[in-house]
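Margin note: ligand = guanosine-5'-diphosphate-rhamnose.
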Amino acid sequence: MTRALITGITGQDGAYLSRYLLGKGYDVVGLVRRNSTPNLDRLEQLGIVHDVKLVEGDLGDQLSIINAVNDAAPAEFYNLAAQSFVPESWKTPAQTGECTGLGVTRCLEAVKVVDPTIRFYQASSSEMYGKVAEVPQRETTPFYPRSPYGVAKVYGYWITVNYRESYGIYACNGILFNHESPLRGPEFLPRKVTSAVARIALGLQHELRLGNLEARRDWGFAGDYVEAMWLMLQQDKPDDYVVSTNETHTVGELVDIAFRRAGIGDWEKHVVIDPALYRPAEVDLLKGDATKARTNLGWRPRVAFEELISMMVDADLDRELRKLPASLTAIAAAA
Ligand code: NDP
Ligand code: GDR
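Resulting structure:
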């Protein structure tokens, strides 16, 4: 049985990747940092929480990563852990650099000292392109990050390339464009929108405050993207790949689709533009070109943009409906 170690197993991608690897017969070990309360909701929602083994560790602590790699003895190591929310990276730039940037070095050092034959995947990001030099963005497009998060990811990208070239480690960068799902964290734009739309449709909320509606992103489904991560580690030679849908949409288009899915036509009545939600520097236009992944890995996305947003709205409506009796009790108690 092949064993994989996944950092960030409690996050969106960690949960989907775990399910995907378990489906392939892998033994899955996840690195979790200590929390005052367990944080395994996503693994529970996918019904796999009892199928994975957990080891403790933190990307800020070198020895804990070495111990985790030693204990797990994986054949494949997926580094998905990061401080991954771009606005937070302006509030905690040094901590973001520690975890999202230097954390990658700690993982690679652990591979180097414990077992350099371990295959390594680094969760790189389209945020590295930032102020884009060309459209669409491909593996050869120069980086120009526009946030402390993007800067940290550029560091993670290059340290991965360097360990590959310096030590012959099988290390790959997946340059993934935005990918979403019903398990997405609530503060990221698509989930923020779909959860608010569900509450507005049920009369539980009236207003949705947003920032820049003009930004364009290439949005895909997380469940599709984790397959590309696995494929990258199954090749004869390690390499770096863009993973994207090759389509771009504005935030405004996403908002429109989400409201229409819930049967609300006049979304402008509910959306309030809040200047505080604009970023100090914006990434205006992301559109990937995943030709290399399609050609070399045989990978392609299956879920289209509108289908993805509809899936998320439906899931949030379902969640809110399941919570409704409790909410009604609370309203009654407050009255
Ligand atoms: P999430 O924010 O959902 O998950 C991040 C994970 O990292 C969580 O499990 C979190 O643990 C863990 N983590 C954070 N800090 C530490 C630390 N110091 N030590 C150990 N674990 C830590 O991210 P996603 O699943 O969406 O993304 C996965 C990876 O892919 C990230 O690296 C992200 O930057 C990158 N990426 C994501 C894209 C996307 O569109 N989703 C696109 C491109 C790249 P905890 O639960 O304890 O907070
Ligand atoms: P992003 O994702 O920064 O692209 O990073 P996010 O969903 O946060 O923002 C997408 C775009 O929407 C605009 N926006 C808002 N965003 C948020 N979060 N909240 C708002 O209210 C709002 N209003 C408008 C943003 O300005 C932005 O243009 C995600 C993360 O998953 C990263 O970890 C990952 O690396 C990249 O995707 C690829």
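The domain at 3-180+221-243 is CATH 3.40.50.720 (Rossmann fold).
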